[in-house]
Amino acid sequence: MKRLPAVILSLLAGASLIALGAPRMIAAFAMIPSGPVLQQIQSLQPVETEDLEILIASQRRGLWWSSSGRKWTDLGLAQMLMAEKKSPGDDERTRLIDDAIESLKSGLAVAPASPFAWTRLAYAEVVAAGPSPGPADCELLCPWRRPRT
Predict the structure, then answer these.
(1) Spatial CB neighbours of 10, under 8 Å, sequence gap ≥ 6
(2) Coil, helix or strand at residue 130
(3) Which residues of 2-19 are buried (b: 16+ CB within 10 A; e: fewer)?
(4) Residue of 44, 36, 115 whose CA lies nearest to 73
(5) SS in 3 state form for 22-70?
(6) 124 in any annotated domain
(7) Given a cut of 70, is residue 145 above it in pLDDT?
(8) Does 17 reside within a domain?
């Protein structure tokens, strides 16, 4: 009888830990198909369109269960790689680039210390909007860049 409260407390603690960990575990299982594709990308190997579709779908399934900055930025990377396979001016390409920008911003909102994600976001925004005329104006405003006479 004296051990009954301890047993109940232990069961409640165990159940709460399982309940808190279950979404992450399910997300990890949902993202299993994306593992080999991410390894190919990280190894700088060419990736087929079907593999990128698998990566995008599994990342979205994983994000439904558990959100993390890495999942969002990996999704943005896959969307950018998919967009690069489309022809310029294609509506699907524009949609994928816009989706990639949103995914990367969502990932950086959660985990802002990822320099690779910031670089990908900058690249996606340049691809979406085109290069800025800012660097050309700097030639006139930056005296240290002028040639010496």
Answers:
(1) none
(2) coil
(3) eeeeeeeeeeeeeeeeee
(4) 115
(5) HHHHHHHHHCCCHHHHHHHHHCCCCCCHHHHHHHHHHHHHHHHHCCCHH
(6) yes
(7) no
(8) no
**pTM for this prediction:** 0.76
**37-54 mean pLDDT:** 92
In a domain, 1, yes or no: no
Domain containing 95 — which CATH number? 1.25.40.10
Calculate Rg over the CA atoms of the chain. 23
Report the domain count for the chain.
Answer: 1
Return the percentage of the chain with pLDDT > 90, whole number.
45
- C-alpha to C-alpha distances, 77 to 4, 7, 53, 60, 89, nearest whole angstrom: 52, 48, 12, 13, 20
| pLDDT for the residue numbered 109 | 93
Residue 51 lies in a domain: yes
Q: How confident is the model at residue 59 (pLDDT cuts 50, 70, 90)?
A: very high
Question: How far is residue 11's CA from residue 47's CA, in Å, rounded to a whole number?
Answer: 47
Please state the length of the chain. Answer: 149
End-to-end CA distance of the chain: 95
